[in-house]
Amino acid sequence: MREVIDERRYVEALLKDLSVDLEWAGERPIETIFIGGGTPSLFSSEAIGQLLQGVQKRVEFGSQVEITLEANPGTLEAEQFPGYRDAGINRLSLGVQSLNAESLRALGRIHGTQEVYAAVERARQAGFEHINLDLMFGLPQQTLAMALSDLASAIALETGHLSYYQLTLEPNTPFHQSPPHLPDEEILWQMQHQGQAILEKSGFIQYEVSAFARLGERCQHNLNYWRFGDYIGVGAGAHGKLTTKEGVIRRHWKWRHPNDYLAAAAGSKSFTQGDRTLQSDDLLIEFMMNVLRLREGVERGLFQATTGLPLVAITERLERAIDKGLLLPDSERLCPTPFGRRFLNDLLEIFEVKGFS
User: Fold this and answer.
1) Pairing state between β 239-243 and 249-254
2) CATH 3.40.640.10 fits 29-225, yes or no
3) Which of 202, 252, 288, 307 is the most exposed place for a label (fewest CB within 10 A)?
4) Domain spans, the chain
5) Whole-structure pTM value
6) Which residues contact 274 (CB under 8 A, 6 or more apart)?
7) The CATH number of 280-349 is which of 1.20.1250.20, 1.10.10.10, 1.10.8.80, 1.10.1040.10?
8) What angle do CA 282, 335, 31 make, to 5 degrees?
């Protein structure tokens, strides 16, 4: 049974948590907001509106601020879409996962195929112009034909953004404890390779490993992650990354359980359960783990601009990646080759060697 959380108390806690983090962040405008994790759309539109009003009182919003809400395509949540739009949400990300009834049952999803179609239509009626669909492949008992049919159905919904990624078995889940029968590696590769070709032919341009967008529809929030930008994380289990005025980069995470988080709001302890300062080796691999997910890569100067480390110190590693055909020989950008994108772990191993100097 889902634990019931008092909306008013939780929104107050979020705003109090934000105020603390803003002391670290300094006076920087908010360019994107992503309300996700769990099922935030179970919160009423009134609570979401109060949250966004409270955020705007504490920090300046950028002129083109992107505000995303994750939602499941269930009937009860779809009924709230007009209220969310009125509250200020301007981008909706729907956790579709599949449009095949058999696959949805295998995943234990509570929504059905028709609810997906209804949710997209309801979102449009509510005034949402920017909609993302999350679609998975490599599902239990899924064939190549089933995966491509699923993808075709998602494309037919004509949204501007589609996240297309492989199912992973997360620790401490029923699937991880009792793994279902999943497609073999060759079938998974075909699902990914053929799926990407179909998406590109349909006008979706791949800009990240699992992200595809029509012109002007890229997710700015996730682009900030992948470009190793700073972000504030508020809420139970949230993670944040902030660069101090002195150039020190600090990661921190909040109490995972809502009761612990609310106890922090009551003043019995800090919101932050843990934090760490990134050292040179950490900065190198974390930077590369993010930016090399981008199809176009990033400008070389971003490395020093975001990490404070000199690019010349990794020249030998860059040359090794280029020699292996994993990185493009581009003097202006750090960009993986198609081969490097396929074997991204091999590319990242080059930057995991300890002893950065």
Assistant:
1) antiparallel
2) no
3) 202
4) 29-225, 280-349
5) 0.92
6) 252, 253
7) 1.10.10.10
8) 70
